Recover the amino acids of this structure.
């Protein structure tokens, strides 16, 4: 008669083996997840692209994934393949193009459609406190711009767009940021950089072109 201890050991080993086989089978049968195409915050709805140049459009995907881009202002598509780190970059032509709105579709294993794109003048407005002061009156500044109430009330410029980079301290270069594009309205203009706002407004009125303003505040020394 088999020793009870030996019998229990064999039964336990058999049960463990069945559990292991079940887990391996389950893992092999589950479809493997793929990294969806991802774009940086700057490349999103309401963005402005610089006119008359080859504009870089970049993002992330699976390594060696094919990425294609279609734009409504061009009757062609651009294609590239993500590198071993999943990074990709395509240069899209905006030559002889201005205005909008346009759309862009980025396709791979998933698809992203970017809407309400304008093509015109794109500027990065960076500085310290002089660039941070907003159009509206703020107690921290103890002032607003001259006639700020009237200026804010009249700030309806749908072809001016704002992007404010959220403050973030890092010792290394960053591949992305936090922020989003918005149209110029009384609500968005009030808290936007006053220097950047008046600069963009002058460009918009004199050139009669869409204007995009990226507000990136530097750190104090």
């Amino acid at each position: 008669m088999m020793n009870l201890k030996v019998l229990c050991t064999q039964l336990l080993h058999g049960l463990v083996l069945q559990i292991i086989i079940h887990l391996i089978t389950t893992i092999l049968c589950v479809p493997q997840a793929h990294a969806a195409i991802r774009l940086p915050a700057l490349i999103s709805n309401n963005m402005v692209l610089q006119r008359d140049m080859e504009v870089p459009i970049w993002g992330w995907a699976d390594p060696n994934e094919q990425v294609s881009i279609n734009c409504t202002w061009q009757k062609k598509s651009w294609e590239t393949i993500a590198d071993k780190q999943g990074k990709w970059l395509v240069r899209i032509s905006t030559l002889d193009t201005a205005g909008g709105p346009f759309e862009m579709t980025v396709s791979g294993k998933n698809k992203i459609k970017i809407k309400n794109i304008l093509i015109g003048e794109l500027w990065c407005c960076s500085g310290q406190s002089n660039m941070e002061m907003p159009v509206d009156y703020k107690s921290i500044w103890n002032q607003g711009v001259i006639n700020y109430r009237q200026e804010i009330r009249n700030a309806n410029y749908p072809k001016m767009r704002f992007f404010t980079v959220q403050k973030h301290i890092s010792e290394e270069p960053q591949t992305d940021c936090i922020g989003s594009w918005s149209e110029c309205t009384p609500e968005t203009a009030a808290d936007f950089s006053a220097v950047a706002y008046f600069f963009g407004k002058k460009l918009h009125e004199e050139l009669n072109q869409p204007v995009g303003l990226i507000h990136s505040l530097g750190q104090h020394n």
